[in-house]
Amino acid sequence: MELSDVVATSQAVAATSSRTAKVEALAACLARAAADGPATVEVVTAHLSGVLPQRRIGVSWRGLQGLPEPAATSALTVEEVDAAATAIAAIGGSGSAAARTAAVRELFARATADEQQWLRGLITGETRQGAGDGVMLQAVAKAADVPDAAVRRAVMLAGFAGPVASAALTGGVEALEALTLEVGRPLRPMLAGSAPDVAAALATLGGEVVVETKLDGIRLQAHVDNRTSPGSVRLFTRTLEEVTDRMPEITEALAALDVETLVLDGEVIALGEGGRPQPFQVTGARTASTADVERLREEVPLTPFFFDLLHLDGDDLLDEPAATRWSRLARTVPPAWLVPRELTDDPERAQEFFVDLVAAGHEGVVVKDPTLPYAAGRRGPGWVKVKPRHTLDLVVLGVEWGSGRRRGWLSNIHLGARDADTGELVMLGKTFKGMTDEMLAWQTERFSELAVDPGDVEAGRSEQQWGVVPLRAEQVVEIAFDGVQRSTRYPGGMALRFARVLRYRDDKPVSEIDTVQTVRSLAGW
Question: What are phi and psi for residue 77, nearest 5 degrees?
Fold first, then answer.
C-alpha cells in the first residue's frame, strides 16, 4: 500500500473536527489496506493510530535534524517504511549511531515533503490528528462490518489495535472472539477512577471495600511462561512497552516461582533507606534506561509489588471476583511482594490508612470493590484512586498552538513561578490538561492580546498553527498537580507532575503567585 494514501488519510482526519468524518476516512483506508493482506492492515492501523508497530527505534527528534531534501514524487510503500523501521530498531553495537543516521537519511530521501513531515511525527510519537483509540476502534468496526463491542473487547485483550483490525478485516466476529488472554502478550491494564477524598471513594463503592496502597512507581505487567522455555519472563509497562531487559532482578525473581504460566499486575519501585519510596523520577529513570543495566541494578535496585493475578497455570482469572484473584495471588508470590491493603467499611479507618501511607511517602490509595472482575483496559467501576491534591498559583509565560481537536486555539501554556531571591519568573513546565472548549476559546483571545509580539500570533495562524507565542507575564492561573520532580529541561531544575488547569485567577496579581522556594519545599528539597 502506498504511504501517500496513509498520509493523505491522516491529513484528512486532522483537518476535520467531525467524529463521523474521521471514522469514515479511517475505515475507508483500512478497507483499502485489507486488499494487501492482514500484515498490511496491522501496520496501517498502527500508523494511523500515530504509533510505530516497533514502538521505539532509537531515533529522537535530534536524529531527525539535517535530513535530505524531500523527493519530488511519492515512491514509498507502507511495507517499506515498516521494514525500514524494523531494520533501524535492530541497529546496535559499535558505529550504530552513524549506521542509524544513514538508514534514516536513506528512508527520508525517498519521502515527499508531506511524507517527511508525517514520518517525523510518527517516529517521535508526536502525531496529533484527533484520531484517538475510540475513533480508531469505531473505524475498525465500520471497515469490517462488525459490532463495536466485539472490537472493544478484543483490543482490551490483544493490547493493540493493529492485530484486532487484522483479525476483524480478515475473519470477522469469529476471529475477534478468538482473541483471548495470551501469556506473553500484554493486555491493557485496568484503570481507576478518581475521588476527591477517601470518604467519597467509599461512598461511591458502598459496603466493605479494600483500601490499597497506591505506589508511586512504574506499572508493571509480568508474564511467566515455563511451558516450552523454563524461566521465560516478559515485562511490560502500562503503555504495553516491553522492558524485560531493563529489570534483570525482577525477571530472575519471577523465574524462580513455582508456576507453569502466570500473569501478574503490579508496580516496581526504587526504595531508599528504611523502605521509604524514592522520588518517582528515580524509579522512572532506572526503568527507562537501557544502558549499563547491571550497574544500575546495583545502584538503584527495584522492588516488585503485585496487586492482581490475571492468569495462573492455564486458568484465566479476569472474570473472577477480585477477592478470589487476591486470595490466589497471596498463595502464589512471596508476602513481601504483596501491596499493603486493608479491608474495611469504616471511613475513619480508611482515612487513617490513607494519611499513614502518604506520610510514609506513598502516592495515596486505591479503594477497590472485592466482588468485581478485572476490567481490562477500562476505568472499571470497582477501582477508585485517592491522592492528596496540591495547587499553586502560577503565571502564564507563553503558549503554543494546539493540534488535532484543539487546532486553531492557543492551547499548551507555559507555567512560571517567582524566585523569591531574585524576583525573576522561572518556568516549571507546561500543560494543556483541564481545559474546556470555553476555556480554550477564552484563552486564545486573551493570550492573543498578551503576546509580546502580535506578529507571533499571526505567524502561527499562517503557518498551520505552529510555534510558541511568548506572553507578557500578566495572567495568573491556578494549577493542580500530583508532585514535583527534578528536571533538567526547565530553568528551575524541576517540573510539576500531571499539571492541570483548575481556573484562571483574574482576581490575583502576578506579585502574589507562588514562589520557586515554595515548590521546592513541597518536594522536600
Answer: -110, 160
Residue 145 included in any domain: yes
In the numeric block, the cell 516461582 is attached to 257
Q: How many CB atoms lie within 10 A of CB 121?
A: 16
Residues 159 and 287 in one domain: no
Query: Cα angle at 18 between 435 and 25, to 5 degrees?
Result: 130
Residue type, 374: Y
SS (H, E, C) 304-371: EEEEEEEEECCEECCCCCHHHHHHHHHCCCCHHHECCEEEECCHHHHHHHHHHHHHCCCCEEEEECCC
Taking only the tens place, the pLDDT of each residue in 293-329 is 999 999 999 999 999 999 999 999 999 999 999 999 9
Choice among 22, 142, 214, 368 that is catalytic: 214
Residues in the chain: 525
Residue 353: which CATH number?
3.30.470.30
Cell numbers that stand for 335 in this block: 508476602
- Asked about 214 being catalytic, the answer comes back as yes
In the chain the first and final C-alpha atoms are separated, in Å, by 55
Among candidate residues 162, 144, 130, 182, the one with its CA nearest the CA of residue 19: 130
Structure confidence at residue 251 (pLDDT) = 96
Q: Tens of pLDDT along 223-270? A: 999 998 888 999 999 888 899 999 999 999 999 999 999 999 999 999
Query: How far apart, in whole angstroms, are the C-alpha atoms of residue 247 and residue 270?
Result: 12
pTM: 0.74
Tell me: pLDDT of 137 over 60.
yes
Considering just the CA atoms, what is the radius of gyration of the chain in Å? 25
End of a domain among 386, 403, 436?
A: 386
